[in-house]
């Protein structure tokens, strides 16, 4: 099966498009491409979320029409069986609750007042709103609940750990996901909390698991004409597959590779789904998919300049220089040098499309070591702290996300960790890194001795207690400085190098 459109790398392209719009009144009248999420489809009409609001557009594409305009987000809109009403989740009054509104717009009606967020799933064939919530569970598990708009009664579906529901035409059989979405951002996750698709027939004593034999993710079931369509990454990328009602006859329908299919709904033989920043439609009968060309007509209020009452909330790291006269600040992917008392402020990282992280001064304060993703991977670069001069690339071997960077007292090395909980010492002259420790749980808090011969850092013991470890750079010798019977962390050397100060959870004095 071939796709009719090439990948649109919308997320990067949007920045250029917004700049163009500022100088093109014609472009505003024709609309612009946005970032589209959480679609649903009914016959030839599509509803989705963009700019935090609900929009509708014909299945054939075109200019979308905005339905909501509240400052908070409206999500997970679902058409009623007759296509006249939308059920969705929103936080108009604070909590995320279930609302309905006419498909052509109007005042939303609130239906839930739960103690936990409520997420709209679908409608039953006879017109009941179906949502998932943890409000009725004794343990933190989602359950499915029906709301009858006529009687206003709630009926709990007798299932534990049930979410992402889809009903067959009779309304007697529900296909659902168990366990619920685990919020794990790791791609190709395979583990005990991977989502699986189950089937429950009304009146049965047990539910039946359909996606047996695959340890990865299977989710967003969609029943249509005797088959269950769903999203899974069995081919290495999240795509749309289907199976029969007993979990057999697996068939792959889409073949995307660059981005995962993230959300999907079906109606009248058409599956509308999110891929990248776009919405696509897969026609079951013709076995073809194509992008829905959607344009938004908006005043882009979210891009207007605004006054920030607490700009400090965007600061991700702060480090002083060796003399205590200046600080280097990392905020919103940019680096700033600011005086402690008075002096010149420097902003020297105004590169478009480049994010900087974890900036710190060198041992003499003349340079700044910072992580930059200009090469598409986070690499260490060196910047002049006075803002005069060019950046110097230190590393060119980034494959795993790196964090921090603590310079040695002689300015020759840098200690840092990566996402796989490995501690490294980087030679600033050669750009080569030496792995000094690895741990399945945690490493961090590197600190250099005054004579730059030792690195103190923290790693988790087998019992997950945090221990302070010493590493001798020249010999590779390691010494476990603290016990694994109590947590110890944040080591810092005394100025003469004879002592190491650290924090520890070893005082068990109770106030009760």
Describe this structure in words.
By secondary structure, the chain is mainly beta. Among the domains are: 67-157; 311-504, TolB, C-terminal domain (Neuraminidase). Helix content is 4%, strand content 44%. It is built from 2 helices and 44 strands. The strands form 12 sheets. The chain has a 4-stranded antiparallel beta sheet, with no helix packed on it. Strands 6-7-8-9 form a 4-stranded antiparallel beta sheet, with no helix packed on it. It has a 4-stranded antiparallel beta sheet with strand order 10-11-12-13, with no helix packed on it. A hairpin with a 5-residue loop joins strand 40 (454-460) and strand 41. The longest helix has 12 residues, at 10-21. The radius of gyration is 28 Å and the shape is elongated. Mean pLDDT is 91; it is low at 1-28.
